Amino acid sequence: MAKNLQSRVVWAGLCAALLAGCGSLFAAPTATPVPTPTPIEYLGRAAKVFETMQSVQFKLLHTGDPVILDQQLGAKFLEASGAYQAPDQLFAQVKVEALGNLFTLKMLWRPDGALMTNPLTGMYGPQPAGMPLAPLALFDKTAGISHLLAAEILNPQVAGIEDVEGVQLRHFTGDVSALALKTILPGTLADANLKIDLWVQVDNDRLTRIQVTAPGSETQLEFFGHNEPVEIPTPQ
């Protein structure tokens, strides 16, 4: 009787040990933490999203030291707003100051050439040679905004997450050379290293705003209406 009791105790201990081992075998695995992307990786994602956009609206503002569009008239750039349609069409209304008056010019960039309205007649004609404003360059994949995001931002840092009208934006800061911006914002910047701020939507990596600060001036470029229908005029 004692031997049977002793055997049962031994078997019970063995079963308990086996069950404990089985429990460890079938325990839920510990989840591997997903590393937080670096600022460079975040900006690389935004660059890819920007490259694949089919359309977008934009607004370009410049304050401080003036950008001269026409030396003879002393025409100064104030702001521009318009729309882009992939792959190569862009329309902009450009506000300028010349001879003490304010004018709004309509500009078109299309595969068959660049057009601009006459400020007096409102009729379209070829853009003057040497026009420094060329917003279609913003969407050039080799030298435009996507290249800027992917390769030209120096020392990028995440400054924080900001809520703008219910939209979560990731705010980046960094440095950029004026040379890297020449094809994007020509005539607006001095030849120096400049401070740049960028805002990108948290949920879809869409670029919404760029702000470049130079000695004596500030340039701000906003993007909105990503992939929504836009209208590019067709002059008759």
Question: What features would you describe in this structure?
Answer:
- The chain has helices at 2-25, 39-51, 145-152, 178-181, and strands at 55-64, 67-70, 75-85, 89-98, 101-110, 113-117, 124-126, 154-164, 167-177, 193-201, 207-214, 217-224.
- Mean pLDDT is 84; it is low at 14-19.
- Strands 1, 2, 3, 4, 5, 6, 7, 8, 9, 10, 11 and 12 form a 12-stranded antiparallel sheet that branches.
- The protein starts with a helix and ends in a 12-residue tail after the last strand.
- By secondary structure, it is an alpha+beta fold.
- It is globular and about 75 Å long.
- The chain is 21% helix and 42% strand.
Low-confidence stretches: 14-19
CATH topology: outer membrane lipoprotein receptor (LolB), chain A
Query: What is the CATH first-level class name?
Result: Mainly Beta
Number of domains: 1
Element pattern in H and E: HHEEEEEEEHEEHEEE
| Beta-strand residue percentage | 35-45%
Radius of gyration: 29 Å
Mean pLDDT: 84
Helical segment tally?
A: 4
Strand tally is 12
Largest sheet: 12 strands, antiparallel
Find the structural class using helix and strand composition. Answer: alpha+beta
CATH architectural grouping: Clam
Question: What is the end-to-end distance?
Answer: 111 Å
The percentage helix is 10-25%
Shape by Cα distribution: globular
